[in-house]
Write a structure and sequence with these properties.
Helix content: 55-70%
Shape: globular
Radius of gyration: 19 Å
GO biological process, one term: proteolysis
Organism: Actinophytocola glycyrrhizae
Number of strands: 0
InterPro entries: Metallopeptidase_M50B, Rip2-like
Number of helices: 11
Family: Belongs to the peptidase M50B family.
Cofactor: Zn(2+)
Oligomer: single chain
């Protein structure tokens, strides 16, 4: 593998820099003269979480592409998927801009389908399943790392809350993506092992099944509450602090 293939793009580094800058703003929100600490903490949380979610979207798609590359699909290299550059995605608007917008407005971390994998070039069914699971795996690992950072470094309250909320979003993304629904990664993981009839059904349902799920999450409060309750249980199961994440969510959507 060429070293330049996995070198982060300037766009990805810029998104990462915004997330870090937001974190610094939260951490030192009470140190800025002639400013309201609460306003600075809210602004910093909004920037850190929104840009942090953008970073996680790039890492999610990088996970798919990296495992595909190792599994035999050399096309992902030439398409630039290994540079974490969202401009290289199949549709940057639906892959990055729309998920960020929905997160900012509704607080729902929707995934964005972004990289095209040539499944015919992958070595076997196990590799196909691994490619699908690699994206959610990155979300899970990132969520756990954020929780560990809160526990080990014990940052200021609002920074801990912002990091916890960002970690909670990663766990939600993990739970959402591993659902065995056509069009999601959970279905992609089991699809190679299904019968031809089931695969044909999945191919037909792939364009609209995720849309129905997302519409239910956005438009049906009861359905959304059940899903978030499951995600909350998963978050606490891996060591998350739901109360702290709740405060982070309030700071992120400070206008509510």
């Amino acid at each position: 593998m060429q070293r330049s293939a996995v070198r982060p793009s300037p766009v990805f580094l810029a998104i990462l820099a915004i997330a870090i800058g937001g974190g610094v703003l939260v951490a030192f929100s009470d140190a800025f003269p002639y400013s309201n600490p609460d306003v600075m903490a809210n602004l910093g949380t909004f920037l850190m979480v929104l840009a942090g979610w953008g970073v996680s979207l790039c890492l999610h798609e990088f996970g798919h592409a990296f495992v595909a590359y190792r599994g035999g699909d050399r096309e992902v290299f030439f398409k630039g998927y290994l540079t974490l550059d969202p401009r290289k995605y199949t549709d940057p608007v639906f892959s990055l801009v729309l998920p960020l917008l929905i997160l900012a407005i509704g607080g729902i971390p929707l995934p964005g389908g972004a990289v095209f994998i040539n499944h015919y070039s992958l070595r076997n069914k196990r590799v196909e399943s691994a490619v699908s699971l690699a994206g959610p795996f990155f979300n899970l690992v990132l969520g756990i790392l954020l929780m560990i950072a809160v526990a080990v470094f014990q940052p200021t309250f609002w920074l801990a809350a912002a990091l916890s909320y960002l970690a909670f979003l990663q766990i939600i993304a993990f739970v959402l993506n591993i659902l065995p629904i056509p069009g999601l990664d959970g279905w992609g993981a089991i699809e190679p092992w299904l019968s031809p009839e089931a695969q044909r059904f999945g191919a037909k349902a792939r364009p609209w099944a995720p849309l129905i799920l997302f519409a239910c999450l956005i438009g049906l409060p009861a359905f959304r509450e059940v899903f978030f309750a499951v995600a909350d249980e998963a978050y606490e199961l891996v060591g998350g602090d739901s109360l702290l994440a709740g405060f982070g969510g309030l700071a992120f959507q400070f206008w509510r």
